[in-house]
Amino acid sequence: VAAFAALVFAIHPLRVESVAWATERKDVLCALFYLLAVLVYLRRKQVPSGRPAVQRRGYWLCFLLFVLALLSKSMAVTMPAVLLLLDIYPLRRFSLTVAGLRSSQARWALLEKVPFFALSALASIGAFRGTIAESVLTTEEALRWVDRAAVAVYGLGFYLSKLVFPSRLANLYALPIPFDPLAPPVLLSAVSVAGLVLLSTWLARRTLVFLIAFAIYTVILLPVIGIFHNGPQIAADRYTYLALLPWTILLGAAVLGGWGVPALTSRARLRVVALIIAPLLLVLTLGVLTWRQVQVWHDSETLWANAVRYAPSAQAHRALGRELVRLGRIPEALPHLRASADLRPDGPWEHYELGAALERLGQRPEATEHYVRAARLSPTNPHFRNYLGLALLKEGRVDEAVTELRRAVALRGDAAEARKNLGTALARQGRDAEAIEQFEEALRLSPDLAEVHEGLGLAFMRRSDFPRAIREFRAALRQSKDAAQVHNNLGVALARQGDPEGAAREFRVAVELRPDFVAAQRNLDAALYEAESRRR
């Protein structure tokens, strides 16, 4: 039974996320130490009382493995409570009666767990503080305590349903905001969980196995079940890595033990056939489903396409759209980015990424509208202000662009990109002195910005400071992506400084780099004519 349960546990599709996702390999490492600690604890209880030295070594080995599990993943904080439940069943160190809970065995079982609980408390505090520092806890406004309780109940039912019917799995089951605790899926899960609790309690008169299995399942899920909710998910496959193990063991016992088979037929031959075929069918089915789920994790596109198909949400559509944009398939990305903004109209990043995609398709007016919405929804985000200002600048709305870019710089003074864009906008207004100030500050913050050198060169050239303009254009040439334009600008500066031959060389390079560069060709003709006139 144990071997079959381990096989079912290993090949179940719910295991795929923890194995395929490199970030969650810590689940596997934590589970290794967690299960070893439980094994040592159970074996220790089999040691005769006359061998205290062996028992002590087993105790501290169990504690060491617990520490290693905690270092792997903070979810191991549940182990002390799990060990206490194992003391009740199957170890039967004390019973759940009033007398049993007051017995010396119960007190000793609790006392020996004190170091475990103390370490769990410290780890829990550290994990909670880290979560707050990373700003991933859902705010009280977004999720009330009644909502958190409903999320917890939903999760208990959801994970059990995926154990029995492992289909429509996704890497993200997004938490709907606003959350409705009376939504049909939540109520269905609540009824299912309540029924399971009542059944386990009723069966406890005969056996504690179901009640203890449910208790261990709930305890292991407590850190991630939703009471202290964090992240965008209402549930996640990876959370089931250890939690569903008690039910997997019971499933293995049910299949191999032939529970209920005699009621189906009185013939021993059919019973034997059923006991052989049922495990094989179960393993084969789980293997096929797991193989299919592994294909989902092939790359980001297949991962998020699967999420959009089976668990559609604003986050899933945005992630798929972002991946398609990265692959250069912007027309395909646009419907997903629009769906993301429609599903979450108050999401600033949804509008920003839709605006960025629209801008790359040349649809600037609509892109600007979404940049405006992003900036309004998150007015203190300098990134949104910067891109809104840049979009306004490209549309020729220079005064509005300057206003937004000043706000971006005020929100984050060390943003070199925003200062570069502000310098460009100020230069368009003819305010070269202020533009030069912004460009120089941008260069101080990020010396590799070629566009800043070019902008400085143009500003200096307008102020007839040709030596400094030439110096900046030459600096831009070392980094520029559009070298033809910079060579042309450098040629203009050299021509105005009185060096037509040097100017002609730069214009010629510009034309060679971009044969359709009409302005550079005209400048080359003029420079050659001027150079020839001087030689005469």
Brief descriptors of the model:
mainly alpha, 536 residues, single chain, two-stranded antiparallel sheet, elongated, 2 domains, Serine Threonine Protein Phosphatase 5, Tetratricopeptide repeat
In short:
By secondary structure, the protein is mostly helical. It has helices at residues 2-11, 16-20, 25-44, 52-72, 79-88, 98-101, 104-111, 114-133, 145-164, 184-203, 209-221, 240-243, 245-257, 261-264, 268-296, 300-310, 314-326, 330-343, 348-360, 364-377, 382-394, 398-411, 416-428, 432-445, 450-462, 466-477, 483-496, 500-513, 518-535; strands at 173-174, 233-235. The chain is 73% helix and 1% strand.
Largest sheet: 2 strands, antiparallel
Q: How many domain modules?
A: 2
Radius of gyration in whole Å, from Cα?
34 Å
Strand order of the largest sheet: 1-2
Percentage of β-strand residues: under 5%
Helix segment count?
29
Dominant shape = elongated
- Could you tell me the mean pLDDT? 90
- DSSP strand count: 2
Structural class: mainly alpha
Question: Which runs of at least 5 residues are low in confidence (pLDDT < 50)?
Answer: 135-141, 259-265
Cα(first) to Cα(last) distance is 103 Å
Helix content: over 70%
Task: Characterize the structure shown.
The radius of gyration is 34 Å and the shape is elongated. Helix 18 packs antiparallel against helix 19 and helix 25 packs parallel to helix 27. It is built from 29 helices and 2 strands. The protein folds into 2 domains: 2-296, no CATH class; 449-536, Serine Threonine Protein Phosphatase 5, Tetratricopeptide repeat (Alpha Horseshoe). The protein has 536 residues and is mainly alpha-helical. Strands 1-2 form a two-stranded antiparallel ribbon. Residues 135-141 and 259-265 have low confidence and may be disordered.
